[in-house]
Automatic annotation (TrEMBL):
Record-stated family: Belongs to the helicase family. RLR subfamily.
Protein's organism: Daubentonia madagascariensis
EC category name: hydrolase
Domain Helicase C-terminal: 379-545
Compartments it resides in: Cytoplasm
Keywords: Antiviral defense, ATP-binding, Cytoplasm, Helicase, Hydrolase, Immunity, Innate immunity, Metal-binding, Nucleotide-binding, Receptor, RNA-binding, Zinc
One cellular component term from this protein's GO annotations in UniProt: cytoplasm
Gene Ontology BP term (one): defense response to virus
Keyword Metal-binding set for record: yes
Chain residues that bind Zn(2+): 579, 582, 633, 638
Record protein name field: RNA helicase
Location of the RLR CTR domain: 564-694
Annotated catalysed reactions: ATP + H2O = ADP + phosphate + H(+)
Highest taxon, organism lineage: Eukaryota
Length: 694
């Protein structure tokens, strides 16, 4: 069932009625059925049945949770079209819009409410929504996420505390939807059953609904794509890699000459250039540099900044090697040229000049290697061959090409566009929203627009994606899925495999690494283990199952409560914030003020001299803020990104991010790093307008 059929009320299929049955009887149910069989429609049937039984005076209230906004948009529009005709009110709030909406009226005034889960977590926490008893039905989309500290689990903790506590208020019915409950790290069916029981306990589900009586009908609709494994060969000689590796060795030894103990800054051993492991090594070294200390503060600042620059360059070189390994050298070289262009445009101190010089010395040679047609990447030839073959067999083919990193998405798009043999392809890209580097993430409207183009028109016939399209986004007519050096876990695999929805669809796994093929075969085995475990659990007596679930819930609550008591101790001592790159003093925690629980500004005139600002490339308004400028460390040659300058109500103030600073304990001189403000437990003084006007 593609989503387009859902708008008109149509006859549900037998297997959809079968999936909806336990839930219609009022049982808490996990519905586990393949991607593409119309689980949204099943939840719609359950919802309609649920709302109709509240005719006399009392009213049903349904909340539907979706994690990803493109998914949320899709489900919400299906429900709106269906239920508004029946006189029910459907509305939704997600992340960005939440601050401007009074949530309680919103819940009060609608019958079916769509939320991203964190909003409910926040509103339960601050008491705006007193209890989950305001709802009569909760539907969790992609419910396999209900684990650890995920917002789904936070909502269910609240539910279970009420279930196991004194309250007599009725709890809502719970429905979970998923293509795959997963098996965690289970090695055998017993462990898999334990894992699945734990998920049922987390969702308080007493039934797992799967299609059993109507399998033939289901298999007519959801085709499992054929799976093909292709082992592809990497380049035999790699001149590009030799040159870049030489540059990396030089950069590493420069870093060692500045700081001899460099090797001891990270536990990660035998790192190879051009791997994720090297990337991890760089990250741990960068973190260690930021808290490292010397008696001579100027010396400390010089060394920290130098190491920051060296490691940043090493990271870019490493990225380039990964691009060149899976795409063309040309794309990797363009990536580096971009980077060095940006370096030149920013601070450009002696070290940067030196590193840029070293790169430019090799540029001529790199250019000629990357232009040499005989040095082309053999993996791309295999990819090209598969694409030619498949589009020759079926010119109407729609493809999703999954790759590991965002940089590869761009590189492969350029390769397709520049390849005359692939002129029949019109590539689009789909990547997630990324924090690290503002210009490479994709905004939601852009994601939505690409998906629409892919779904409806012949604009794009191949979509190059990182993992975002794995979960839940409906791409109906895609009949070829190519996993290019890309594997996920078992949930990902079932989800991805479900993405190829058209008849006769195929799924290729292309990899130069035999282990990857092994891993994928393990995934197939885990999928079988999962299905066997579910079948076994379904034979249990329901009362016995409920008893087992209750035991798990009591045990988990006991663990939760004993951990909860250890509230973080607030450290009331004043501390210094230093720039993470050059260690310049920025401000003291006593001057930090918190706005609306989540944004941090600095008061006083001293701080104004510590930063410089540049107009923001993408100024925009969010809730009561207007983002106007970016702020950077004012120390000569540093210009480390510290955050933004905003207009808040009538005030023009800086908003800083803790990940740009090192925190130094004044008395002991100990330094620590935090990536999020919420992990930093200092005395947080709320922002006060009166204080500002003094």
């Amino acid at each position: 069932v593609s989503h387009t059929d859902l708008y008109s009320p149509f006859e549900p299929r037998s297997y959809q009625l079968e999936l909806a049955l336990p839930a219609k009887k009022g049982k808490n149910t996990i519905i586990c059925a393949p991607t593409g069989c119309g689980k949204t429609f099943v939840s719609l049937l359950i919802c309609e049945h649920h709302l109709e039984k509240f005719s006399q005076g009392q009213k049903g209230k349904v909340v539907f949770f979706a994690n990803q906004i493109p998914v949320y948009e899709q489900q919400k529009s299906v429900f709106s079209k269906y239920f508004e005709r029946l006189g029910y009110r459907v509305a939704g709030i997600y992340g960005a819009t939440a601050e401007n909406v009074p949530v309680e009226q919103f819940v009060e005034n609608n019958d079916i409410i769509f939320l991203t889960p964190q909003i409910l977590v926040n509103n339960l926490k601050n008491g705006t929504i007193p209890s989950l008893s305001v709802f009569t039905l909760m539907i969790f989309d992609e419910c396999h996420n209900t684990s650890k500290q995920h917002p789904y689990n936070m909502i269910m903790f609240n539910y279970l505390d009420q279930k196991l506590g004194e309250s007599l208020d009725p709890l809502p019915q719970v429905i979970g939807l998923t293509a795959s409950v997963g098996v965690g790290d289970a090695k055998n069916t017993d462990e898999a059953m334990d894992y699945i029981c734990k998920l049922c306990a987390s969702l308080d589900a007493s039934v797992i609904a799967t299609v059993k009586d109507n399998l033939e009908e289901l298999e007519q609709i959801v085709y499992k794509p054929q799976k093909f494994f292709r082992k592809v060969e990497s380049r035999t000689t790699d001149q590009f890699k030799c040159i870049i590796s030489q540059l990396m060795r030089e950069t590493e030894s420069l870093a060692k000459s500045i700081y001899g103990e460099l090797e001891n800054l990270s536990q990660i051993q035998n790192r190879e250039f051009g791997t994720q492991k090297y990337e991890q090594w760089i990250v741990t070294v960068q973190k260690a540099c930021m808290v490292f200390q010397m008696p001579d503060k100027d010396e400390e600042s010089r060394i920290c900044k130098a190491l920051f620059l060296y490691t940043s360059h090493l990271r870019k070189y490493n990225d380039a090697l990964i691009i060149s390994e899976h795409a063309r050298m040309k794309d990797a070289l363009d990536y580096l040229k971009d980077f060095f262009g940006n370096v030149r445009a920013a601070g450009f101190d002696e070290i940067e000049q030196d590193l840029t010089g070293r790169f430019e010395e090799k540029l001529q040679e790199l250019e000629s290697v990357s232009m040499d047609p005989s040095k082309e990447n053999p993996k791309l030839e295999d990819l090209c061959f598969i694409l030619q073959e498949e589009y020759h067999l079926n010119p109407e083919t729609r493809t999703i090409l999954f790759v590991k990193t965002r940089a590869l998405v761009d590189a492969l798009k350029k390769w397709i566009e520049g390849n005359s043999k692939l002129s029949f392809l019109k590539p689009g890209v789909l990547t997630g929203r990324c924090k690290t580097n503002q210009n490479i993430g994709m905004t939601l409207p852009a994601q939505k627009c690409i998906l629409d183009a892919f779904r409806t028109s012949g604009d794009n016939n191949i979509l190059i994606a990182t993992s975002v399209a794995d979960e839940g986004i409906d791409i109906a007519q895609c009949n070829l899925v190519i996993l290019y050096e890309y594997v996920g876990n078992v949930i990902k695999m079932i989800q991805t495999r479900g993405r190829g929805r058209a008849r006769g669809s195929k799924c290729f796994l292309l990899t130069s690494n035999a282990d990857v093929i092994e891993k994928e075969k393990i995934n197939i085995y885990k999928e079988k283990m999962m299905n066997d475990s579910i079948l076994c659990l379904q034979t249990w007596d329901e009362a016995v199952f409920k008893e087992k679930i209750l035991h798990i819930q009591i045990h988990e609550k006991f663990i939760r409560d004993s951990q909860r008591k250890e509230k973080p101790v607030l450290d009331k001592e004043n501390k210094k914030l230093l720039c993470r790159k050059c260690k310049a003093l920025a401000c003291y925690t006593a001057d930090v003020r918190v706005i609306e629980d989540s944004h941090y500004t600095v008061v006083g005139d001293a701080f104004k001299k510590c930063f410089v600002s540049k107009p923001h490339p993408k100024p925009k308004k969010f809730s009561s803020f207007e983002k106007r400028a970016k702020i950077f460390c004012a120390r000569e040659n540093c210009s480390h990104d510290w955050g933004i300058h905003v207009k808040y109500k009538t005030f023009e103030i800086p908003v800083i991010k803790i990940e740009s600073f090192v925190v130094e304990h004044i008395a002991t001189g100990v330094q620590s790093l935090y990536s999020k403000w919420k992990d930093f437990h200092f005395e947080k003084i709320p922002f006060d307008a009166a204080e500002m006007s003094k």
